[in-house]
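Researcher: Going back to the complex we discussed earlier. I've cleaned up the inputs and rechecked each line, so this should be the final set. Can you rerun the prediction on the complete assembly and write out the structure?
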Amino acid sequence: MDLGLKDKVALVAASSQGLGKAVAIGLAREGAKLALCARNGDVLNAAAQQIAKETGAEVITKTVDVTREEEVRHFVDHAVAMLGRIDICVTNAGGPPAKPFDATTTEEWRRAVDLNFMSTLFFAQAVLPRMRAQKWGRFIAITSLTVKQPVDGLILSNSVRAAVAGLVKSLANEYGAHNVLVNNVCPGYTATDRLVELSSTLAKSAGVAPAEIEKRWTAQIPLGRLADPKEFADAVVFLCSERASYITGQSIAIDGGFAKGLL
Amino acid sequence: MPFSLKGKAALVTGSGRGIGRAIAMQLAEYGASVMLNDIDREPLMEAGALIDKAGGAVKAFPGDITNPEFPQKLVDATVNGFGSIDIIVNNAGYTWDNVIQKMSDDQFQAMLDIHVVAPFRILRAASGYIRETAKREIAEGKRVMRKVVNITSVSGVDGIAGQAGYGSGKAAINGLTKVMAKEWGRYNVNVNSVGFGFIETRLVQPLGENTTIQMKGRSIKVGVQQAARDAVATHCPLGRAGTPEEAAGAVLFFCSPLSDYVSGEILIVSGGARS
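Model: Rerun complete. Updated structure for the full complex:
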């Protein structure tokens, strides 16, 4: 299947590692040009060099804090100036800390909103007018399976990511007429550094070994294992592609069957 | 800072690396918006990132200026992207050397194509904008100077053995400089050449097995014999090679208001070395 991604320009946020990097590699393999950003410039540049070397893709990078509106706007402007256009935008950011409600401060709530909601909004503000003008666009928000089914101990993610899902669905309605498709992808338990961090945090608070936490997770997953980041990326790459041209406004879980709801 | 290029839009060909990159960075540093162009995308994106990081206004339009259709697209992208084109630096170039008995037709023609035919097409592509804009400005009683800098070489004015093609192309561009200085004087355009001597770029790296550049799928040997590199110490009055930044300085002068009454000139930047 030709995904029709050759020479499309894709912006992938928080792409120096983990899910963002996996998506970037997936898009590069299909011939897309990449604009990547992350907070840590050294890790980002190493990732960009690796991707360019492995795939031959054209890659530009910029150190960006996605919670800062002006930095996001400047990054998007720079990407357009250097690569000519933006066809695809995949938003992503680190996850908020895992904490019970009574241990979570107001400041942490605000930070979670900035990190996971406002960052998505800033990218939408910067890229959607351009996509509307060119009558082609793919805007994909990476959130979490918590959108499908709240996870104990992740109240910040459970709450704030749901707001992103609301934003995505609304944008899909407003931009559908302009051939700009907006979707939300909900990774489940995927073998990334972030997950290792999460398992050790949860293990510490539960007084068990991290392996025990991982066992508890996989016990709830019909496929009986964690996802490889590449499996997540494959789904995102498809949604970014020409072949996903009638899919918009969806929250699609790539969770091995974890979410127990019917839809 | 004796001048500012704020509000000026500049096009610099071959600005991914070497002297072209240094020219683009200096123009941006002095406030110009810069359209970068190079046939090699990777260094071009790097140059763009550097200028962006330094706070400059930059865009990129990669591609091969020897493709006959390309120069008009490049000029249009500059005008559409920045709203004007005020400075053109015809910098893109490379060496493909051989003594005459070993120089193929393709090789000789390639040196003319990149060093004089492409600059000709770029200036012709910009002529519509430049004439119309200048006529309007003059009718409004304004004198707005625009700048063309064509990059030549000591090879084009003094001759260097092994460079029948390169030297001919670099001599021919000076003809274009002289003609356009006369044709475009009435439109307030300064047209000048800057010719380089021994400047540290990949073209004069120490000659070795792997000192090649890739040009349109062809591997072309570049570099200079160590003995010739060493000779700079004695042959050049300043006793050393120049840096890309030093080379760019002379181009910046011709892009600036400091040169508003200089046109049709050839300025050699060689540390004093002439043969």
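Model: Worth noting: Residues 191-226 of chain A form one domain.
Researcher: Good, that matches what I expected from the previous run.
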